[in-house]
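Two proteins were folded this term; both appear here.
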Amino acid sequence: MDANSSPPRAGGRGGRTSGTAGAVWLRGPRTYRDSTLTSDRIIAEAIVLLDGEGAGRLTMRRLAEHLGVGPTTLYWHVKTKDDVIDLAVDAIFDEVSLPEPSSRWDDDVRALVLQWRATMLRHPWAAGLLGRPLLGPNVLERTEFLQATLRRAGFEGPVLAAATHGLANYVIGSAATQSTWQHLATPELQQSADAHVRAHADLYPTLAVTHHLGEHDWDDLFRRGLEFMLAGLGSPA
């Protein structure tokens, strides 16, 4: 892509990239038959469904029903469920505001990462999908900001890649763990899990004392962990 071209949008005609994760960004633009059914409207409705029910229950037929159109009409706009998911993932990254660069690289990383985590928690289905090829403009723009900020701090080459992946994986892993645990763990389950560990304190003495599976302040845990990471990144090696 040259400097004057626009990022690829939804749609496009077949080819070998059809039906695979990330393929939607590698196709050309498409002419739509129904001007009232826009890509923005499709993705907004898809996000509503994903937020409410998760990625496992999203189908093209159910999405078409929620849009009030037939599946054939929907397929004229997006070719596959993979396309819908890729577009939805990129769309929610637009909620992550790019910080204004400051004189402190760690403040800029902190500001980006905290917003990124908040977005993942608002859309708990997303963290489990971030292993896909992320080629959308919103994702790439924020990844560019993160790497450019780390590079400004003196990171280069493999060290820069390791720092980028380390921070990204910390955000994604933390959000996925919190979303899953809060969805599954009722207060009764948390109490039972904590009691189980304490009942086996001879095997897990530290976990029993720290109430590893008890109730936690997730925000505090994340912020403390992030500070550990940023402190460790203070001296590129």
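Next, the second protein.
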Amino acid sequence: MTKDITVAQDGHVATVTFHRPPNNHVSVDLMRDLADTLEALDADGVTRAVVLASEGKPFCAGADLVSSDGIGGTGMGGIAPLYDQAVRLFSIETPIVAAIQGAAVGAGLGLALVADFRVAAPEARFSANFVKLGFHPGFGLTHTLPRLIGQQRANLMFLTGRRVKAEDGLAWGLVDEVVPLDQLLS
């Protein structure tokens, strides 16, 4: 556990919750701590599945492009270390179920796609808003998103920045199940 990540073990299922209020923005440190946590669970001999969750209204509102300790504080030089951590996250062997209660935007969408399954509340929204920021889709999304929803729908998300509601995400294959918010973790 770290200041931004807690782990609750219930039998063979570990719930890993990250919390970086108010928007759960991604930083290199958070992704490193998350990868360290998931690698430790991978190797513990007890955990057979992980639920990846976050606290607050958004699941993850993307990379922190503003604060001095975020990606923006280091300029574009912060992108390569972030991608190094993304590769570690995609290498986790234990099955991961993401519990998505709100917005998963940009790097937050990428983080949601690290999971093998996505369970979303009706309030969840998904967006690859990189085009609105003027740079390429990151976090491996140009590989992972088309594999889930097809190239045409991925292009629609990449080239328009369109937000996809949980119900549409279910129809597209982006979400595996939509459940009421109060039942998301169960």
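The CA atoms of residues 106 and 128 lie 5 Å apart. The first strand starts at residue 5 and ends at 10. These notes refer to the second protein only.
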